[in-house]
Amino acid sequence: MKRFAACFFMLILTLGLSGCAAFSPPPEPGASEDEIISRYGNPTAIYPDGDTVLWEYAGGYWSQQTWMAKINKNHRLISWEEVRTDARFATLVIGKSTKTDVLKTVGQPTETSRIHLNNYEVWSYRYLQDGVWDAMMHLMFDEQGIFRKMETGLDPADDYDDGGIFGRMRRR
Q1: Is-above-0.85 flag for pTM?
Q2: Is residue 77 within 8 Å of residue 31, measured between CB atoms?
């Protein structure tokens, strides 16, 4: 019983501390590049975007979140935004958006694969659908790199049985 209580306490402590990082306030517009780097580290990707530059910060819980910082030519933050959302995926235009457009909109995929029947390259993104459900968004591109199809479903990493004492276990 003592071992269970100790494990339970450590779990609560771990979740509590990880929650602090997840809810830290975003940087304010006007923050310098140096301030952003000192707080969040180097970006995971950088995308030129006209007169601005987009800095991608991928990660979050189970790689479900990605933030995009828009930096102006004076090296100051214009905006800081969570991009793995239903609303952002909905801005992609089937038959028009390219891989570059997708990278600038929702960032790098969690994983890539291929559907040989249609010869589509698939970029898959973990995210919280409606801000609640563990989901995986699949974006499919033709041989020219044009976005052709989008499908979403449950995150397969969420469906496992570890044989634990409570039976079927979820990662949350």
Answers
A1: no
A2: yes
